């Protein structure tokens, strides 16, 4: 008896070893056929169960000669895309394959390869299993593929038009003015050390996304509700929790987004029972937030039934109208899909834009000459006209060609919120692509990582100069917005790809860069991805960010605070040389903190680094009005 059990067990073990081995051998053969450099790793970085056994296989792996593991081992670490970026591809090849028994993965920072992959949605679909966590509120445009995705994309993309972009522009102006008065303080003078830039940019972008997603008017503590507000919306804007809630809408949203990783990973029934402060807060936020979402859905359904017209931008309202309105024919979304899509817009559009604003503000404080040049552009564009009177249609193109957009673009280049875009080859069919004139056949079912953070620092595609900050051979790792005006290395564009998608899947279809500016080669600049599955919110995100930057820098300057090194009175007595020295210290520290950014869901500086800044009226600067670097 014991013997037969033992025999059976050995047979099972032997069989699974045999299966793993044959799978591995066929993976290896397929990888070899590509002609690309390939590396064997003990376990796929996407295999979470496998990762738990690191302690067994890592030491075994390291018994092999160094060249087999030394460079490639980083792909088994968290966050290598941003940390290693282009450097690792220099060592391993601009497109390289890693093979584990369970999976073949292609990582690439080759623009030509990336461009082909993003241009053929059906041959290179999304590995939807990587997004499953995002579907717990309902299936949506991010988590689906194939026919289901087409339906979601078609319905959701209706909100992303130029009319709404103009509304977002104005709301962004209003909200940024709210932020500015917050920063100026009750005496309206500014010149106070602000240690909450992260919190404040998050709040700013949350207010704007609240408008984009739900048509809400969210308030800064110093503001009051406008008298003409729709009474139904009041309960979402008040600071006190409305009846039936323990948190107000904004807090429930902010806290849900802040704790999104916990909320996505821990099932709700477990979460509700855990005793920790953090999990309790997360659960409370989620319960409130879901409650608000359902109430919102029903309010909107009532609106539709009463024949109320749409006002302003309001993605959720628009989704309800397509499913419940008179025009609701053909494919419609279920209630859970409406909530799923509304929620995913918040996830996609909140932290991404907040991080870019945060970084751009800090980099402008780090780089006084750039800040002055940007203000000069703003003076030319707007003079001292009231931002409330800025006209979207006539100013958006010049703004997009100005240093304001160049700063935004450069931040998106150097710290892209999404550092790696996952794709895959369809199972059952190898796919051929061209890389530097050679045909490469990527095996069926290969997992693909388009390494945004690396290609955007690949000197092959970008004009560069020796680094002024570190003395490095090139300035790819530095934030240099002027780069967007270095047209000498103008790249190829618009080359035709055989079999590329031709259908219009909604979203902004305008050009990526205007003609007189540096135009990155296709596939080399993909902060919003590209092709049919590119970011739906791209235009809106750009519009809100340039509007916010314009409002701040038209009348104010942002300086690093130097309190750590000198008091205000000490600064007052300093010579320019001494001031420059003290500012240099603040710049050094701020640059170190920025370098330590890591990416969790999106790229951000996790941990408790605080870079203090001061908002001052133009003309009252202590540093940035004259510092040379
Ligand atoms: C700086 C801001 C933003 C960045 C860098 C960004 C980046 C991206 C990227 C890289 C993708 C592709 C993801 C993938 O393929 O895995 C994406 C998709 C998407 N983004 Fe954004 N995004 C931003 C802002 C927004 C905003 C404001 C919204 C909505 C209001 C939004 C809505 C979406 C949606 C719906 C998708 C899925 C599109 C589809 O799969 O068809 N994004 N975004
Ligand atoms: C993950 O790794 C474990 C252990 O190494 C293995 O048994 C399992 O088949 C792997 N799963 C996948 C999906 O590759
Ligand atoms: C911005 O504020 C102004 C004045 O308070 C108002 O007239 C305008 O409608 C607001 N815009 C948006 C998009 O809320
Ligand atoms: C920044 O990028 C956007 C879109 O990617 C483009 O429209 C704009 O012209 C760029 N601006 C500059 C100054 O490079
Ligand atoms: C924004 O900058 C601050 C520095 O004041 C930093 O602490 C924070 O982590 C940054 N936030 C993001 C989202 O990058
Ligand atoms: C900023 O405020 C401090 C006191 O808080 C004052 O000494 C200093 O002169 C102010 N600077 C300017 C430019 O107003």
From TrEMBL:
InterPro entries: Cyt_P450, Cyt_P450_CS, Cyt_P450_E_grp-I, Cyt_P450_sf, Cytochrome_P450_monoxygenase. Keywords: Heme, Iron, Metal-binding, Monooxygenase, Oxidoreductase, Signal. It comes from the Eukaryota. CDD domains: CYP56-like (cd11070). Residues 1-22 form the signal peptide. GO terms for molecular function: heme binding; iron ion binding; monooxygenase activity; oxidoreductase activity, acting on paired donors, with incorporation or reduction of molecular oxygen. Heme binds at residue 535. Pfam families: p450 (PF00067). Transmembrane segments: none annotated. The keyword Amino-acid biosynthesis does not apply. The keyword ATP-binding does not apply. Belongs to the cytochrome P450 family. This is Cytochrome P450.
């Amino acid at each position: 008896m014991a013997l037969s059990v033992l025999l059976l067990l050995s047979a099972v073990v032997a069989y699974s070893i045999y299966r793993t081995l044959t799978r591995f051998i066929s993976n290896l053969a397929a990888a070899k056929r590509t002609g690309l450099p390939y590396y064997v790793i003990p376990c796929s970085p996407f295999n979470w169960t496998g990762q738990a056994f690191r302690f067994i296989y890592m030491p075994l792996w390291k018994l092999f000669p160094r060249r087999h593991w030394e460079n490639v081992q980083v792909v088994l670490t968290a966050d290598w895309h941003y940390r290693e970026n282009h450097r690792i591809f220099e060592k391993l090849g601009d497109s390289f394959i890693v093979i584990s028994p369970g999976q073949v993965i292609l990582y690439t920072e080759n623009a030509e390869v990336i461009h082909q992959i993003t241009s053929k949605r059906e041959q290179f679909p999304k590995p939807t299993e990587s997004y499953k966590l995002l579907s717990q509120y309902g299936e949506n445009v991010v988590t689906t593929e194939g026919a289901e995705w087409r339906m979601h994309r078609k319905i959701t993309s209706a909100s992303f038009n130029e009319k709404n972009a103009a509304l977002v522009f104005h709301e962004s102006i209003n909200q940024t003015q709210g932020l500015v008065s917050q920063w100026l303080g009750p005496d309206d003078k500014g010149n106070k050390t602000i240690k909450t830039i992260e919190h404040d940019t998050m709040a700013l972008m949350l207010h704007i996304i609240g408008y984009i997603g739900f048509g809400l008017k969210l308030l800064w503590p110093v503001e009051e509700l406008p008298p003409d507000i729709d009474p139904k919306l009041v309960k979402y804007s008040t600071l006190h929790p409305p009846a039936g809630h323990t948190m107000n809408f904004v807090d429930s949203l902010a806290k849900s987004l802040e704790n999104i990783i916990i909320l996505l990973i821990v099932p709700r029934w477990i979460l509700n029972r855990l005793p920790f402060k953090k999990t309790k807060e997360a659960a409370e936020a989620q319960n409130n937030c879901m409650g608000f979402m359902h109430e919102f859905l029903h309010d909107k359904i009532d609106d539709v039934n009463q024949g109320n017209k749409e006002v302003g931008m309001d993605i959720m309202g628009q989704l309800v109208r397509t499913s419940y309105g008179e025009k609701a024919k053909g494919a419609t979304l279920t209630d859970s899909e409406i909530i799923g899509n509304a929620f995913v817009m918040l996830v996609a559009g909140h932290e991404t834009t907040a991080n870019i604003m945060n970084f751009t503000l800090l980099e402008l404080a780090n780089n006084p000459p750039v800040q002055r040049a940007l203000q000069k552009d703003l003076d030319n564009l707007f003079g001292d006209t009231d931002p409330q009177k800025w006209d979207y249609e006539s100013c958006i193109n010049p703004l997009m060609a100005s240093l304001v957009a160049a700063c935004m673009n450069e931040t998106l280049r150097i710290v892209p919120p999404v550092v790696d875009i996952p794709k895959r080859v369809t199972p059952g069919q190898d796919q051929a692509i061209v890389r530097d004139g050679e045909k490469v056949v990527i095996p069926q079912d290969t997992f693909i990582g388009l390494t945004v953070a690396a290609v955007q620092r690949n000197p092959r595609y970008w004009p560069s100069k020796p680094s002024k900050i570190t003395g490095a051979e090139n300035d790819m790792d530095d934030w240099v917005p002027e780069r967007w005006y270095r047209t000498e290395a103008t790249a190829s564009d618009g080359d035709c790809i055989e079999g590329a998608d031709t259908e219009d899947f909604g979203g902004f279809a305008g050009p990526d860069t205007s003609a007189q500016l540096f135009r990155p080669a296709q596939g080399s600049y993909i902060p919003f991805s590209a092709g049919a599955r590119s970011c739906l919110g791209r235009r809106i995100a750009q519009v809100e960010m340039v509007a916010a930057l314009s409002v701040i820098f038209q009348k104010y300057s942002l300086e690093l605070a130097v309190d750590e090194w000198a008091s205000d009175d000490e600064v007052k007595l300093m010579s320019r040389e001494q001031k420059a020295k003290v500012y240099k210290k603040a710049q050094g520290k701020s640059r170190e903190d920025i370098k330590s950014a890591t990416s969790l869901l999106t790229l951000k500086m996790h941990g408790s680094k605080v870079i203090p800044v001061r908002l001052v009226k133009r003309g009252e600067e202590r540093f940035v009005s004259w510092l040379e670097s």
